[in-house]
């Protein structure tokens, strides 16, 4: 059973009432179809109201949902013949980033993404989706390999941020992310990034220098978490809800500011409700983007990427 979030309580209670009436109908052989139909119509209106008017903090909670589909979930639904490749050829393999080669609609592609765990044991193995520098170096190795063989690159972003621990810093965390930014900017193959959950800080940007950036409707993309921002601005992490509103971290906000190229609609209640249906929405977006970028020459792709990031931001002289 999918764990409900606090703002979903009215919807959950109404669903439980409908299930209760259906149970009475089956067990007592009492016809309550009229009441059930009315409640189902009311449920449809309530879901539209609740899920259609979510506040930024609500979307943060959905983006963090423990059952939200991960990179490997989407790979299984979207791509054929995926072969995972490991290691950065320098230090080791980082399970917080997965990547490899696959086919999308018959076209060879390279797929890379942050990977969270499904339970405590796997989360520990994958460091809760927070990569070490060897993870970003593995990603870059796979990107350069894709460039060599002319394969488009698809990145899935889903991390609270790069791991800030002592060992990561000793092995060059900042340098690894910075090198990814530089190298991705100059790749001569199409690069498409999709934020599927949390897109936090430089840890997200290390896979985010792309020709096209898309976000799932309930994902977030920001330089810092709402809790971190609240701690810095107001010395109180409990004000994270207010920070989320002020930071403009939702897909709609970022599309309005032209930081991303499009918002991918989510199934009712969030992507965790139906990963297969959600993958269908992503598939159509990928098809459109790959078709548009596939006709660009190599220097055109680099220029397109440059112009995209050059125009981000507001400044005055």
UniProtKB/TrEMBL annotation:
Keyword annotations = ATP-binding, Cytoplasm, Fatty acid biosynthesis, Fatty acid metabolism, Lipid biosynthesis, Lipid metabolism, Nucleotide-binding, Transferase
Compartment(s): Cytoplasm
Limits of the CoA carboxyltransferase C-terminal domain: 38-292
Q: Which domain of life is it from?
A: Bacteria
- Identify the EC number(s): 2.1.3.15
Q: Name one GO cellular component term.
A: acetyl-CoA carboxylase complex
Q: Which reaction does it catalyse?
A: N(6)-carboxybiotinyl-L-lysyl-[protein] + acetyl-CoA = N(6)-biotinyl-L-lysyl-[protein] + malonyl-CoA
InterPro entries recorded: Acetyl_CoA_COase_a_su, ClpP/crotonase-like_dom_sf, COA_CT_C
Instruction: Say yes or no: keyword Metal-binding present.
Output: no
Q: State the SUPFAM superfamilies in the record.
A: ClpP/crotonase (SSF52096)
**Its annotated pathway?**
Lipid metabolism; malonyl-CoA biosynthesis; malonyl-CoA from acetyl-CoA: step 1/1
Annotated Gene Ontology MF terms? acetyl-CoA carboxylase activity; ATP binding; carboxyl- or carbamoyltransferase activity
Gene Ontology BP, a term = fatty acid biosynthetic process
PROSITE patterns in UniProt: COA_CT_CTER
**Self-association or partners: how does it assemble?**
Acetyl-CoA carboxylase is a heterohexamer composed of biotin carboxyl carrier protein (AccB), biotin carboxylase (AccC) and two subunits each of ACCase subunit alpha (AccA) and ACCase subunit beta (AccD).
Q: Summarize the protein's role.
A: Component of the acetyl coenzyme A carboxylase (ACC) complex. First, biotin carboxylase catalyzes the carboxylation of biotin on its carrier protein (BCCP) and then the CO(2) group is transferred by the carboxyltransferase to acetyl-CoA to form malonyl-CoA.
Q: Which family does it belong to?
A: Belongs to the AccA family.
Its protein name is: Acetyl-coenzyme A carboxylase carboxyl transferase subunit alpha
